[in-house]
Specification:
single chain; alpha/beta; Lysozyme-like; 2 domains; two-stranded antiparallel ribbon
Protein backbone atom coordinates (compact mmCIF):
# COMPACT_ATOMS: atom_id res chain seq x y z
CA UNK A 1 0.00 0.00 0.00
CA UNK A 2 2.83 2.40 0.83
CA UNK A 3 3.97 2.40 -2.78
CA UNK A 4 0.84 4.26 -3.93
CA UNK A 5 0.78 6.84 -1.11
CA UNK A 6 2.34 10.20 -1.94
CA UNK A 7 3.12 12.67 0.83
CA UNK A 8 2.10 16.27 0.21
CA UNK A 9 1.99 17.98 3.59
CA UNK A 10 -0.72 20.49 4.29
CA UNK A 11 0.17 23.99 5.48
CA UNK A 12 1.07 23.71 9.16
CA UNK A 13 -1.80 26.09 9.95
CA UNK A 14 -4.24 23.37 8.94
CA UNK A 15 -3.47 20.73 11.56
CA UNK A 16 -2.63 20.38 15.22
CA UNK A 17 -0.16 18.98 17.68
CA UNK A 18 1.81 15.77 17.65
CA UNK A 19 0.38 12.65 19.29
CA UNK A 20 1.52 9.18 20.16
CA UNK A 21 0.76 6.51 17.59
CA UNK A 22 -0.99 4.42 20.23
CA UNK A 23 -3.50 7.25 20.64
CA UNK A 24 -5.03 6.36 17.26
CA UNK A 25 -8.23 4.40 17.91
CA UNK A 26 -10.63 5.35 15.10
CA UNK A 27 -10.77 5.93 11.35
CA UNK A 28 -13.30 8.48 10.10
CA UNK A 29 -14.58 8.40 6.52
CA UNK A 30 -15.39 11.70 4.78
CA UNK A 31 -16.10 12.95 1.28
CA UNK A 32 -14.86 16.13 -0.35
CA UNK A 33 -18.33 16.93 -1.69
CA UNK A 34 -17.09 17.90 -5.13
CA UNK A 35 -18.04 16.52 -8.53
CA UNK A 36 -14.80 15.95 -10.38
CA UNK A 37 -11.90 16.55 -7.98
CA UNK A 38 -8.75 14.55 -7.34
CA UNK A 39 -6.55 13.57 -4.45
CA UNK A 40 -3.66 15.54 -5.96
CA UNK A 41 -5.76 18.71 -6.33
CA UNK A 42 -6.92 18.49 -2.72
CA UNK A 43 -3.40 17.87 -1.49
CA UNK A 44 -2.12 20.91 -3.36
CA UNK A 45 -5.00 23.09 -2.14
CA UNK A 46 -4.38 22.30 1.53
CA UNK A 47 -0.62 22.73 1.06
CA UNK A 48 -1.02 26.23 -0.39
CA UNK A 49 -3.78 27.63 1.81
CA UNK A 50 -4.48 28.08 5.51
CA UNK A 51 -7.99 26.68 6.03
CA UNK A 52 -7.82 25.53 9.65
CA UNK A 53 -9.23 22.19 8.59
CA UNK A 54 -7.60 19.04 7.20
CA UNK A 55 -7.64 15.29 6.71
CA UNK A 56 -4.84 12.77 6.87
CA UNK A 57 -5.56 11.19 3.48
CA UNK A 58 -7.29 12.01 0.19
CA UNK A 59 -8.21 9.07 -2.04
CA UNK A 60 -9.27 8.92 -5.68
CA UNK A 61 -9.34 6.17 -8.29
CA UNK A 62 -5.64 6.55 -9.10
CA UNK A 63 -3.75 7.44 -5.94
CA UNK A 64 -3.67 8.29 -2.26
CA UNK A 65 -2.29 11.61 -1.04
CA UNK A 66 -1.24 11.89 2.59
CA UNK A 67 -1.77 15.48 3.72
CA UNK A 68 -1.17 15.13 7.47
CA UNK A 69 1.18 12.62 9.15
CA UNK A 70 -0.58 9.95 11.20
CA UNK A 71 1.11 11.16 14.38
CA UNK A 72 -0.31 14.68 14.02
CA UNK A 73 -3.87 15.70 14.86
CA UNK A 74 -5.88 16.62 11.76
CA UNK A 75 -8.92 18.86 12.15
CA UNK A 76 -11.48 16.72 10.36
CA UNK A 77 -14.28 15.64 12.69
CA UNK A 78 -14.53 18.32 15.38
CA UNK A 79 -17.82 20.05 16.19
CA UNK A 80 -19.87 21.91 18.76
CA UNK A 81 -21.90 18.79 19.50
CA UNK A 82 -20.82 15.17 19.46
CA UNK A 83 -23.00 12.11 18.94
CA UNK A 84 -20.17 9.60 19.27
CA UNK A 85 -19.01 8.89 22.83
CA UNK A 86 -15.29 8.64 22.08
CA UNK A 87 -14.21 9.46 18.53
CA UNK A 88 -12.52 12.85 18.27
CA UNK A 89 -9.81 14.54 16.20
CA UNK A 90 -7.24 13.61 18.81
CA UNK A 91 -7.73 9.85 18.50
CA UNK A 92 -8.71 9.35 14.86
CA UNK A 93 -7.44 9.37 11.29
CA UNK A 94 -9.49 11.21 8.67
CA UNK A 95 -9.86 9.72 5.18
CA UNK A 96 -11.48 11.83 2.43
CA UNK A 97 -12.98 10.16 -0.65
CA UNK A 98 -12.81 12.15 -3.88
CA UNK A 99 -15.09 11.91 -6.90
CA UNK A 100 -12.66 12.25 -9.80
CA UNK A 101 -15.26 11.81 -12.53
CA UNK A 102 -17.25 14.95 -13.39
CA UNK A 103 -20.68 13.67 -14.42
CA UNK A 104 -23.23 15.79 -12.55
CA UNK A 105 -23.36 13.52 -9.51
CA UNK A 106 -21.18 13.21 -6.45
CA UNK A 107 -20.26 9.59 -5.80
CA UNK A 108 -16.87 7.84 -5.74
CA UNK A 109 -15.92 5.39 -8.46
CA UNK A 110 -15.55 1.71 -7.69
CA UNK A 111 -11.78 2.15 -8.09
CA UNK A 112 -11.83 4.92 -5.47
CA UNK A 113 -13.85 2.81 -3.05
CA UNK A 114 -11.54 -0.16 -3.58
CA UNK A 115 -8.47 2.01 -3.01
CA UNK A 116 -10.01 3.53 0.11
CA UNK A 117 -10.82 0.05 1.43
CA UNK A 118 -7.23 -1.00 0.86
CA UNK A 119 -5.95 2.08 2.68
CA UNK A 120 -8.34 1.70 5.60
CA UNK A 121 -7.54 -1.99 5.99
CA UNK A 122 -3.83 -1.17 6.05
CA UNK A 123 -4.45 1.45 8.75
CA UNK A 124 -6.61 -1.01 10.70
CA UNK A 125 -3.77 -3.50 10.60
CA UNK A 126 -1.15 -0.92 11.53
CA UNK A 127 -3.02 0.52 14.51
CA UNK A 128 -5.06 -2.54 15.54
CA UNK A 129 -8.40 -0.88 14.79
CA UNK A 130 -11.43 -3.21 14.57
CA UNK A 131 -14.17 -2.62 11.96
CA UNK A 132 -16.58 -1.18 14.52
CA UNK A 133 -14.18 1.74 14.98
CA UNK A 134 -14.31 2.70 11.32
CA UNK A 135 -17.03 5.36 11.29
CA UNK A 136 -18.45 8.17 9.20
CA UNK A 137 -18.16 11.87 9.98
CA UNK A 138 -21.94 11.61 10.38
CA UNK A 139 -21.52 9.15 13.24
CA UNK A 140 -19.34 11.63 15.14
CA UNK A 141 -21.15 14.98 14.72
CA UNK A 142 -24.18 14.25 12.49
CA UNK A 143 -22.70 16.32 9.70
CA UNK A 144 -23.99 14.94 6.38
CA UNK A 145 -20.65 13.50 5.42
CA UNK A 146 -20.25 11.48 3.33
CA UNK A 147 -23.69 12.63 2.15
CA UNK A 148 -24.23 9.62 -0.12
CA UNK A 149 -23.76 7.25 2.83
CA UNK A 150 -25.70 8.93 5.65
CA UNK A 151 -28.86 10.78 6.62
CA UNK A 152 -31.50 8.15 5.78
CA UNK A 153 -32.07 4.41 6.29
CA UNK A 154 -31.38 3.69 2.61
CA UNK A 155 -28.11 5.63 2.68
CA UNK A 156 -27.11 3.94 5.94
CA UNK A 157 -27.71 0.60 4.24
CA UNK A 158 -25.62 1.69 1.25
CA UNK A 159 -22.76 2.66 3.60
CA UNK A 160 -22.80 -0.81 5.09
CA UNK A 161 -23.08 -2.68 1.79
CA UNK A 162 -20.74 -0.51 -0.31
CA UNK A 163 -17.99 0.02 2.24
CA UNK A 164 -18.24 -0.99 5.89
CA UNK A 165 -19.22 -4.63 5.37
CA UNK A 166 -16.17 -5.13 3.13
CA UNK A 167 -13.71 -4.28 5.87
CA UNK A 168 -11.76 -7.14 7.34
CA UNK A 169 -10.46 -7.52 10.83
CA UNK A 170 -6.73 -6.97 11.37
CA UNK A 171 -4.73 -10.10 10.59
CA UNK A 172 -3.87 -10.78 14.20
CA UNK A 173 -7.60 -11.11 14.92
CA UNK A 174 -8.23 -13.51 12.05
CA UNK A 175 -7.64 -16.62 14.15
CA UNK A 176 -7.88 -20.07 12.59
CA UNK A 177 -10.29 -22.26 14.52
CA UNK A 178 -9.74 -25.96 15.21
CA UNK A 179 -12.49 -26.76 12.71
CA UNK A 180 -10.73 -24.61 10.09
CA UNK A 181 -7.47 -26.47 10.76
CA UNK A 182 -9.14 -29.88 10.44
CA UNK A 183 -10.71 -28.87 7.14
CA UNK A 184 -7.35 -27.65 5.82
CA UNK A 185 -5.62 -30.89 6.86
CA UNK A 186 -8.31 -33.12 5.31
CA UNK A 187 -7.96 -31.27 2.03
CA UNK A 188 -4.15 -31.36 2.16
CA UNK A 189 -3.98 -35.06 2.98
CA UNK A 190 -6.43 -35.87 0.20
CA UNK A 191 -4.23 -33.97 -2.28
CA UNK A 192 -1.04 -35.80 -1.17
CA UNK A 193 -2.73 -39.21 -1.35
CA UNK A 194 -3.51 -38.62 -5.02
CA UNK A 195 0.13 -37.92 -5.95
CA UNK A 196 2.17 -40.72 -7.53
CA UNK A 197 5.61 -41.72 -6.35
CA UNK A 198 8.48 -39.64 -7.67
CA UNK A 199 10.60 -41.33 -10.33
CA UNK A 200 13.56 -42.00 -8.03
CA UNK A 201 11.32 -43.99 -5.64
CA UNK A 202 8.96 -45.71 -8.08
CA UNK A 203 10.98 -48.96 -8.40
CA UNK A 204 11.48 -49.25 -4.64
CA UNK A 205 7.74 -48.75 -4.13
CA UNK A 206 7.04 -51.55 -6.64
CA UNK A 207 9.39 -53.89 -4.77
CA UNK A 208 7.75 -52.97 -1.47
CA UNK A 209 4.37 -54.02 -2.85
CA UNK A 210 5.76 -57.25 -4.32
CA UNK A 211 7.27 -58.27 -0.97
CA UNK A 212 4.03 -57.46 0.84
CA UNK A 213 5.60 -54.71 2.91
CA UNK A 214 3.24 -52.06 1.60
CA UNK A 215 -0.33 -52.43 0.43
CA UNK A 216 -1.41 -52.29 -3.18
CA UNK A 217 -4.48 -50.14 -2.59
CA UNK A 218 -4.77 -49.14 -6.21
CA UNK A 219 -4.73 -52.71 -7.59
CA UNK A 220 -2.07 -51.85 -10.16
CA UNK A 221 1.07 -52.96 -8.37
CA UNK A 222 1.84 -49.54 -6.93
CA UNK A 223 2.00 -48.40 -3.32
CA UNK A 224 -1.25 -46.91 -2.11
CA UNK A 225 -0.72 -43.14 -1.61
CA UNK A 226 3.12 -43.19 -1.72
CA UNK A 227 3.42 -39.51 -0.76
CA UNK A 228 1.00 -39.66 2.17
CA UNK A 229 2.21 -39.45 5.76
CA UNK A 230 3.22 -42.71 7.44
CA UNK A 231 1.61 -42.94 10.88
CA UNK A 232 3.32 -44.70 13.77
CA UNK A 233 0.88 -47.61 13.71
CA UNK A 234 1.46 -47.99 9.98
CA UNK A 235 5.22 -47.89 10.52
CA UNK A 236 5.00 -50.65 13.14
CA UNK A 237 2.90 -52.70 10.70
CA UNK A 238 5.60 -52.26 8.03
CA UNK A 239 8.29 -53.42 10.49
CA UNK A 240 6.16 -56.45 11.33
CA UNK A 241 5.74 -57.35 7.65
CA UNK A 242 9.51 -57.17 7.29
CA UNK A 243 9.85 -59.69 10.17
CA UNK A 244 11.70 -57.27 12.40
CA UNK A 245 9.35 -57.59 15.38
CA UNK A 246 9.62 -61.42 15.81
Amino acid sequence: MSDIITMNLANSGNYGAARRYDAIKYIVIHYTGNDGDTAVANGNYFARNVLQTSAHYFVDSVRVIQSVPDNRIAWHCGGKQYFHPECRNSNSIGVELCDDKRDGTVYPSKATIDRALELVQALMQKYNIPPERVVRHWDVTHKLCPAYWCGSPSKDALWRSAFWSKLKKPKEEQKVTYEDFKAFMIKYEAETREQKADSYAAEACRKGVQKGIFSDGNGDGSVDAPQAYLKRQEFVAVLDRMGLLD
